[in-house]
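Hi R.,

Here's the chain you asked about this morning:
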Amino acid sequence: MNHIISPLDLSVEELDKLLDLANDIERNPEKYAHACEGKRLASLFYEPSTRTRLSFEAAMMNLGGKVLGFSDEGSSSATKGESVSDTIRVVSCYADIAAIRHPKEGAALVASMASQIPVINAGDGGHQHPTQTLTDLLTIRSLKGRLDNLTIGLCGDLKFGRTVHSLIDALARYENVTFILISPEELRVPGYIRDGVLQKENVSYREVVRLEDALAELDLLYMTRVQKERFFNEDDYIRMKDFYILDEPKMKLAGPDMLVLHPLPRVNEIAVEVDKDPRAAYFKQAQYGVYVRMALILTLLEIA
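And here is the predicted structure, written out as tokens:
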């Protein structure tokens, strides 16, 4: 039985096959409309979520399956002290596949070790968010036509941003990918990513503080919000939260084909005026998230 805890759980070949399936689902949704009839997805969200939870639920419903679960820790037996391991053992009796989001790093891995059904990590603390990464890869490949030979700017909270860590992990495996890491000193990429991925895999990268210094070079700009829930000190959060704001004047510094991605939700790091720019792809990205999660459910259930 397979689980998806990290984007690296899929080889490059498996990833290409999954993205091909997601593209086929996008083109031929009716072909898959009954693929998961009689199957149930357990949606176990110990942390608030809009896009990830609803896109998992939409994915399963689009496949003809059903969904059960909880949308926050307070409505689960975690409030009584039940462990993640015990919860997943019980849920394995009720469902065929589970998606789990948890504020603690490693929680999804712990769940997978106790589970009798496939487990998908829907985000664990500041660690990994593999299905967001698969969404990002599908978006990039669908709109750019490739996952290699790209210069990618990652901007904002690169220290706590699990979407950033997962994306670096995944794209480091492709040829001729260069990262420009745009962040204040306090929110730089952590050492385990810098040393353990970028330097270890000999990936080209540089770190800058000013967004304006990078825009002209980029094929893709991946904006992130500064996450209040990851800060221990509110003063630090207030000081950092408006450090980067992408607006029309900054977009004029970028090339005509540069894509702007964002895992959402945004707060104010992308001005609303940018939404009408044809290079803004973050709402398309949310739609691609449904296709890729449909493909992942089919793959883990060995239906496709």
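One quick note: The first strand starts at residue 40 and ends at 45.

Cheers,
M.
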